[in-house]
Amino acid sequence: MESANRDSADVPGLCPDCGQSGVRLYRVRATGERFWVCEECDAAWRPGADRSKFDTDLSALLPDEPNPWKAIERADGPRQVHPQQALIDLAANGELSGLWLGMHRTDALTVVDAPHAPASDRVVTAGDVSLTFEADRLVGIAVRLPLTGIRWPGLMSLSSSPRLTPAPRSEALKALQDVNVKPLPDTSPDDRTAEFQAVGRRIRLEFDQDLLSAVSASVARS
């Protein structure tokens, strides 16, 4: 079983717990920490653990995550990444470098290293990222994109996830069109702004001299 202990991305294998061939290498989006996990039964193995026998499970490995699958991503080998993947992830999925719309306030503040922000603060700004909360849930993520470089706060600065960039306006708009994010009804993109909708979300892009200068995603109001 020598190959079962290799911590490289090219050695998937059978799960000793469920017998399925779903063991893959994953990483935590916010920290880059890697481990093996069975996509069928959630059995998990820490780096160096003997994958021929049960080690732990995903919930035990990430006990502070209410939904651990939301906090991790596949790390087994290269993947084709859209140049504006971070924009797509935020618009289509409400996710950005360890944050996601709907997560608990405490978890979101930990990601941006602002755990002691007063509970009365509906909007908390850290670096170039602003978070909006409602009833202890994250309902809005906004990011400024200065040409001098984005100041990513806390764990976001360590994340290996794709990064937002001041992309050309045409490139940013095409990225959202490619994943069928629809323009907000009764609006049309102009030189300064563009607003879109996805399932349960609204997305707003702002432009400065034909470059993307700010992005925000928020929970849609019914």
UniProtKB/TrEMBL annotation:
Protein's name according to its UniProt entry: Uncharacterized protein
Source organism (scientific name): Actinomadura keratinilytica
